[in-house]
């Protein structure tokens, strides 16, 4: 399950950026694009397992926000939503330029005492 390694990486990132304040984090928000192969329920389960094993994080919450896939049409010079992995603009031109949808990052950190 690669979600557990993702959760471990999230905590490594939080620890390296917030050092002594990690224990004061109340909630984190993770943004995952549909192409990132991250399943929200699976990453939530991995997060729950991680904080169960690391009890000093047990009050921390995580929210996963899923971004749709957005591509760019060079013919129309505009972004368009991708539905059912069909990378074809309304004008009929195919596109391989992904603007949004393959990302995975920590988008928000909320502290208990801020």
Question: Could you walk me through the main structural features you see in this protein, from its secondary elements to its overall organization?
Answer:
This protein is an alpha+beta fold and 114 residues long. It has a domain at 2-68 and 100-111: hypothetical protein PF0899 fold (2-Layer Sandwich), CATH 3.30.2320.50. Helices cover 27% and strands 32% of the residues. The chain has 2 helices and 6 strands; from the N terminus they run αβαβββββ. The chain has helices at residues 2-18, 40-53, and strands at 25-33, 61-67, 70-73, 78-81, 97-100, 104-111. The strands form 2 sheets. It has a 3-stranded mixed sheet, with helices on one face. Strands 4-3-5 form a 3-stranded antiparallel sheet, with no helix packed on it. It comes from Sphingobacterium detergens. GO terms for molecular function: nickel cation binding; zinc ion binding. InterPro entries: HypA/HybF (IPR000688).
Give the structure's gist in a few sentences.
With 114 residues, this protein is an alpha+beta fold.
CATH class of the domain at 2-68 and 100-111: Alpha Beta
Strand order of the largest sheet: 2-1-6
> What is the helix/strand order?
HEHEEEEE
Overall shape: it is: elongated
Termini Cα gap: 34 Å
Tally of DSSP helical segments: 2
**Largest sheet properties:** 3 strands, mixed
Overall average pLDDT: 93
- Spans of at least 5 consecutive residues whose pLDDT stays below 50 are none
**How many strand segments?**
6
Q: Architecture of the domain at 2-68 and 100-111, according to CATH? A: 2-Layer Sandwich
Output the structural class.
Answer: alpha+beta
């Amino acid at each position: 399950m690669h979600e557990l390694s993702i959760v471990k990486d999230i905590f490594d990132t939080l620890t390296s950026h917030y050092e002594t304040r990690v224990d004061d984090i109340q909630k984190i928000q993770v943004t995952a694009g549909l192409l990132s192969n991250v399943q929200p329920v699976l990453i939530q389960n991995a997060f729950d397992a991680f904080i169960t094993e690391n009890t000093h994080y047990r009050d921390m919450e995580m929210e996963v926000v899923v971004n749709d896939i957005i591509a760019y049409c060079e013919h129309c010079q505009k972004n368009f939503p991708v539905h059912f992995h069909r990378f074809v603009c309304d004008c009929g031109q195919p596109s391989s330029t992904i603007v949004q949808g393959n990302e995975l990052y920590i988008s928000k950190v909320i502290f208990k005492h801020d």
